[in-house]
Amino acid sequence: MSATPVNAEPPAHIEILCAVLREQFPDKVGSLPLSPETRLRDEISLDSLDLLTLAAVIENHYGRAVLDEQTNPNVFATVGSFSRHLAALSTERVDS
Amino acid sequence: MLYSLFQAAAARAPERIAIWHNSRSISYHALDARIRSVSARLNELGVARGTKVATCVDSRPETLVLYYAIARLGAQLISLDTNSTRAELEQVLLRCSPALVVAEGRYREDLRAALASLPEPAMLISEGSEPHSLADLFREGPSPSVEAKRAPEVGPFHITFTSGSTGRPKGIVVSQRALCQRIGAWIARAELSAADEHLCALTLSHAVGPQYAAFPALSSGGSVHLMDPLMITPQRVLRYLSERRITHFAALPYFYQLMTTVPNVEAFDLSALRVAMSVAAPLPEETARAFFAKFGVTLNNGYGLSESGIVIADLTQRTAPRDATIGTPQPGVEIRLLSDGSSPSRSDAAEGEIAVRSQTLADRYFSDDDGPLLRDGWLHTGDVARRDSEGRYHIVGRLSQFINVAGSKAMPLEIEQVIAQIDGVREVAVIGVPDPRTTQKVAAFVVGDVELSAERVLQHCREKLAAFKVPAYVEFLSELPKSSLGKILKTQLRSNSERG
What we know:
heterodimer; A: 96 residues; Non-ribosomal Peptide Synthetase Peptidyl Carrier Protein, Chain A; B: 500 residues; alpha/beta; Rossmann fold; GMP Synthetase, Chain A, domain 3; 3 domains
């Protein structure tokens, strides 16, 4: 796994995300180094069904919906944007 | 006709919510006003009866406003797939030469380039486009001073192009009349009423989302909740179905399969959900069983093509699935099963190619090059089904997908169903690959748990299948190649296997 940069993404979330990406899409991720800047669509070539699968696995891990009507559609742009979203979710009140 | 159906529903309950989108809602009365004002603006731009308007728009209320406005003017709607690549958009636009294209901002540059190569100039309305922008078209507020003349709503209306995953896209032309037959048949069969709450998480840029989710809802006085198909997740949808007491929902089999993996589902109450349609790909029996076991909801299987609309459906509710039946014919639909090229007017076998005659059939293919849609008034689907003793239909496979093993015909679907029974198998696709000795041999591509072995798969197949149907080889993949609609791309598996 690539080194976590100094301007650290919350490590727990980004590490979970990278682990899920490697486990779910071994052919697409391969030996590609993953960093917060890695683009899910363009670099890992995840298509819409892959992103759905990714979201489903992450949801099952966190035990809650990871997207809602307020979510910015660009959340899936990069490893960093998705993990920042997960970090924000986990600090949010669950009763929202 | 399409707009008239909406107008009648709007007149019955003008204050009823027609569309929910995120936390916005719009009543039937307000929606009607917006349809009238957009149709007046389109009319000012020259859109009239027969004008071809191409759209490349997201699943939002404005899209439905636009579709109804086009219908109200008797114009033609070419809905471009929002998953298209630039090359695909160019190819379709070049073939259909629309007079006007309405598109989300992110397609603006691609479309501008594509439109420049058209023989006839076309106007583009998009975000920030000149002289007319998307915001101008959808601007709220009073209608233009002149009410657009309503044209008779007849003739060709909804044109969709099948995805370009296999060669040249094929355009399918559905008339207002056929579309309204599809809507009417679905309302009758699913017993839709003004009390229904529909969740539409299918793209409005294909045929099935508008034709089987949005239009039937808005023709029967119900509310349709729009959700961006790219922003759906199993838990988000479960929460929405539960909290908003949704009664009618449609999704791909794969989405239902993902829903069955959600842990701790006690928090979700799907007791209001009457109809949960599985669309666009065959529903695996295992998915239907797992879904029922988890949620107590019967997934409603069905069969249809863009050419035909849904012609066979199973609307069973709240009972454990017995098998993978696609159900019984829709009202007004004639089905014949043809064995060995027999004529539908003379024969109906217990098993054979599905032929359909119905008022819901498309009018024609967009280009004559794509051949005639009908033969003697019947659509020959290329899909093979059998009919059981109760008159229920079951898909057996596709004619062109028969695997010819030394003269014996193996059906991929049958083999796939057998392999899917094995513990640890998540997905499977079976194809025929060339073999110098037997013409073709059976190849199985399996996505499954790491401990699963080819020997285990073969052993199970040997137990359940005739020898010629047992795969000659089994390959494990981390995933199957799929189209944007979730259909497994067997052509890609075939070319990969030939290369490998």
